[in-house]
Amino acid sequence: MDNNAYLKIGQQAMMKNVGRLPVVISRGEGSRVWDADDKEYIDFLMGISVNNFGYCNPEITVALTKQAEKIIHVSNYFYLEEQVRLAEQLVKLSGFDAVFFSNSGAEANEAALKLARKHGKVKLGGKYQIVTAKGSFHGRTFGALSATGQPKYQESFQPIVPGFSYADYNDLGSWQAAINDQTCAVLLELVLGEGGVIPATHDFVKGLF
Ligand SMILES: Cc1ncc(COP(=O)(O)O)c(C=O)c1O
Fold first, then answer.
1. Strand 183-187 to strand 129-133: parallel, antiparallel, or no bridges (unpaired)?
2. N or C: which end of the chain has fewer CB within 10 A?
3. Are 132 and 138 in contact (CB under 8 A)?
4. Among residues 110, 119, 133, 137, which one has the least CA distance to residue 183?
């Protein structure tokens, strides 16, 4: 089947939850991908920075294949050898106490939101409010969507999860105004992505602490 034939089926059979480009990817190598017509592209997106080691990186391919031959998944009722070894390394390198493994950015942010809320409940006398940036993007799950400071993504799903307020990026005064006696956390992209690829200034981040 060629690119257009796949496209026709995909456009009908797949939900239109995001706007996709009319390209059906067939394979990748390094920084390049090929569509179903064998047309070559340089992919600057790399899975929105997920595939930063390149497509079909030989070392990753070998590791994945070896692991698939051993075992792929057990429930979270067990530990996995590789998981334990990776957790130990991450703890050592990061200086944090423990890690939480998740499958996506949205899931990581959901965990962060829940940790913040729990900390607020248990340690801060019930504080629950979380401040995030206007123009931010934190994911498509309900909590992460509610944290996302872009009303256009939230409109269709109102009412969203309560307890979020939004402040202007790199404007400490705006955050000071949004933070109140019920605030338990702030959630921040250190480079505001969808809001314009704007790096956070040093003074702004320092000020938030
Ligand atoms: C800054 C930021 N946070 C969170 C997410 C959500 O990550 P995922 O798509 O892996 O759920 C994204 C995705 O683009 C993102 O750009």
1. parallel
2. C
3. yes
4. 119
- Say yes or no: CB of residue 138 within 6 Å of ligand 1: yes
Q: Check pLDDT > 90 for residue 49.
A: no
Residue with the nearest Cα to atom 9 of ligand 1? 105
Q: What percent of the chain has pLDDT over 90?
A: 98
CA of 29 to the centre of ligand 1 (A): 24
Among the atoms of ligand 1, which is closest to the Cα of residue 141? 11
Asked whether residue 110 carries a pLDDT value surpassing 90, the answer given is yes
Number of the ligand 1 atom closest to the C-alpha atom of 104: 10
Confidence label for 202 from pLDDT (cuts 50, 70 and 90):
very high
| CA distance linking residue 191 with residue 209, whole number of Å | 17
Q: Domain check: are 84 and 141 in the same one?
A: no
Residue that finishes a domain, picked among 49, 67, 85: 67
What's the pLDDT at 78? 97
pLDDT at position 180 is 97
Q: Is 137 in the pocket of ligand 1 (CB under 6 A)?
A: yes
